[in-house]
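Many introductory courses stop at the sequence. We go one step further.
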Amino acid sequence: MRIDLHTHSTASDGTDTPAELVRNASAAGLDVVALTDHDTVGGHAAAKAALPPGLTLVTGAELSCRLTPASPEADGRDGISLHMLAYLFDPDEADLARERELVRDDRVPRAQAMVARLRELGVGITWERVAEIAGDGAVGRPHIATALVELGVVPTVSDAFTPDWLATGGRAYVEKHELDPFDAIRLVKAAGGVTVLAHPLAVKRGACVPESALAELAAAGLDGVEADHMDHDPATRARLRGLAADLGLLATGSSDYHGSRKTCRLGEYTTDPEIYGEIVRRATGAFPVPGTGG
């Protein structure tokens, strides 16, 4: 089985519609694909309706979180931004749905503030163009990065995620409402879901979760870590697998596919079938959807 547990559609910041994504996943030879748009389940219904035979859909979301240090003054930071993959939770569970809505509601003013900062830096970007790029999706930094590519400010979307521009703490970065990761674990578990920390050691994205905090998250009920990812080199992947073994965590692999917005391909990294089976076994909020031909 070929299993990819981290993808995005136009419901957030991908370029494939949910229907296109599941069709492309099938064409790429995948047996299982998870749709994990940022802080939304808005693409699930369309993905289910278009699901080709032979492809199983895992419903999920990538939750925006921030780990706050015990002593911000001593630490010198106001926290570390991280992403929590949540799988097979009940989308109608009220507390988790309310938190997702709070994050989504903050996305537009945050993106507008980043556009304003870029204009102060002399970039001829407009909010109208960013909103046009985002369309009906949940607007975020990748849409702003796409506008920067169009303007020739940076050569690729990834090059916009640096301290010069949109990286956490960068010149044009603006914070948004984010869940405490310990609260995220609790809420997802209460909704019957499973949690996996996305790309935890992707250093080029900014500050990473320290190993001590990873141990605390594991003790709080975190189920796994995304080890095989395009932003982890081989040594980092091996290190994460070792940490997962030490902490009793599952180690997954995923593409983090965003369509044409990023260079990663569907199925570029995959999850072991036994690990996938354990994720499904732990979930009680929802179940994988087998494709019958939509």
